[in-house]
Amino acid sequence: MKPAEVTVPTTTPPCTTPPEEDKTVQNDIRIAVIGNVDSGKSTLVGVLTKCVLDNGNGLVRQYVFNYPHEKENGRTSSIAQEIMGFDAKLEQVQPSRAKASKAELCTQVAAASAKCITFIDLCGHEKYLKTTIFGLVGMVPDYAMIVVGANMGISRMTKEHLGIALALGIPCLIVLTKIDISPPEVTQKTLATLNKLLHGAHRSPQNVKVEDDVAAMAKLVHGGSICPIFCVSNVTGEGIGKFKQFLGHTSSRAHANPLFKTPSDPAEFIIDGIYAVQGVGVVVAGTMLAGTISLNQEVLLGPDPNGEFVPVSIRSIHFNRLQVEKAVAGQAVCFGIKYHGGKKEPLKRSNVRKGMVLVAKTIVPRAVWEFDADVVILQHATMIQEKYQSVIHCGVIQQTAEVARMDKEYLKAKDKGKVTFRFVHRPEYVHAGTTILFREGSTRGIGKILSINYDYKREHPLGPQKKHPKKKQPAPPQPVESPAS
Ligand SMILES: Nc1nc2c(ncn2[C@@H]2O[C@H](COP(=O)(O)OP(=O)(O)OP(=O)(O)O)[C@@H](O)[C@H]2O)c(=O)[nH]1
Ligand SMILES: [Mg+2]
Q1: Domain 370-453 is in which class?
Q2: pLDDT for 303 beyond 50
Q3: What is the number of the ligand 1 atom nearest to the C-alpha of 76?
Q4: Is the predicted pLDDT of residue 157 greater than 50, yes or no?
Q5: What is the rounded distance in angstroms from the CA atom of residue 312 to the CA atom of residue 297?
Q6: In 204-227, which positions are buried (b, 16+ CB within 10 angstroms) versus exposed (e)?
Q7: Taking the model in full, what pTM does it have?
Q8: Distance from residue 190's CA to the centre of ligand 1 (Å)
Q9: What is the C-alpha separation between 201 and 179, in angstroms, rounded?
Q10: Which CATH number applies to 268-363?
């Protein structure tokens, strides 16, 4: 998939965030980890965050996996998050081995750190591409770290992941793993292919050497002007120290990312994870795109299958696993929520889905079925016409949509056009200006929402949906860990 023409802003808009909150936002960095299956993503995340080395046979990834089935087959199939902390001198905060659980380790690191990097470990296998795209589009990472096995070369999936990150305007860094087992000539060949690929995508690759100034490099990566390539071994530890130094100098791109508004705007929080926590109730994880949400505040949760929003209260707020009083634009946080007011039934996990939002009451949110978008078809085997259906990724929203109308008879690979998409299953809360990705089989496209069609209304395809189904639902699988933030 070729990168589309999406401009990466290089200038930082003036910051209106109060200094203390601004520091928290600036020192909270999110890195999405992508790349081909078995390239060493989970292992690298484990080596960086747990300060241990791998045995080349799947030892360290065990500390990163969420589920027992992932441990059994060694393949990431869910989104795992791990924290790496730095103190004020940019020395890594060592995780204490005495603390047993993943959650306790994260809390300990976050509490002792002046700066935190959250790695979002995504799936390499094509079977889980939907999950990986969700992590890249919905979890609003500051950077994408593309992991490539030095001995494995550049696969189709590596190109696909890189293409999506570039199309979304996320600055990239590359880590070549397995240099301990890759013959030097093979590593050189992989590097040459990578350099060619990045030049072709109008990015400047920079092979990092021992003597390079990583602080200066981190600034250039922030602006998206260079793409550094680090060569490491998760087994011998070669190159890991230099890479950690670089990571210590990275900073958040929240102020440079046009997706984020200021803490004084009306609040908007997009939900990327839902948990039922014993003794706490429903907890939603996600990203604050705008505004400020405080403890006990009343906000609106929605849209439900009928497109409606319900008032909920904020019972608890966690940022990097630590309890806080408020959350501001740019932060990834978790909220404990309950129905506001006199609702008899408690809020259940099944009442919330990924793709919903929490918004300030002042917004008066409206869910819609249709929107117009400017699109470019990156690859498609035949032609796209009216009634064509595809999965649309738009922030945390993932839903099949149909082409209701278009300004041309058909679109084929490399064509641009104006398309009206209509969601198939339920109305969603979307904004003009948001980037969308769509994919179906080998078809890939990217676009930007131009306008929302509030006039088109329809019933839910299955008739009006009950908000609280009477039938007892089977208990959803519980995450092994409590939410990451
Ligand atoms: N020798 C050597 N082996 C490594 C290195 N990094 C990872 N491995 C091994 O490579 C295998 C795959 O590593 P994973 O971390 O599971 O790879 P992944 O990219 O997360 O794979 P998916 O989650 O399935 O996409 C494991 O057996 C690791 O032990 C390295 O630098 N050197
Ligand atoms: Mg993995």
Answers
A1: mainly beta
A2: yes
A3: 23
A4: yes
A5: 8
A6: ebbebeeebebeebbeebbebebb
A7: 0.89
A8: 17
A9: 25
A10: 2.40.30.10
